[in-house]
Amino acid sequence: MSRILVVGGGAAGLMAAGTAVRRGHAVTVLEKNQRPARKVMITGKGRCNLTNACEPTDFLEHVVTNARFLNSALRTFTPQDVMDLFENTLGVPLKVERGNRVFPVSDKAVDVVDALVRYASGADVRCSTTVASLQVEADRVKGVVLANGTQLPADAVILATGGLSYPATGSTGDGYGWAEKAGLTVRTTGPSLVSVVSDDPVCRDLMGLSLKNVTLRVEETASGRCVYSDLGEMLFTHFGLSGPLVLSASCCLRQWPKGGYRAVIDLKPGLTDRQLDERLLRDFLQNPRVAFHNALGRLLPRKLIPVAVKRSGIDPDRPAGQISRQQRQSLVGLLKGFSVPLTGLRPVEEAVVTYGGVDVKEMDPKTMQCKKVKGLYIVGELLDVDAVTGGFNLQIAWSTGHAAGMAVE
Question: What is the DSSP code (8-state) at residue 147?
Answer without folding.
Answer: T
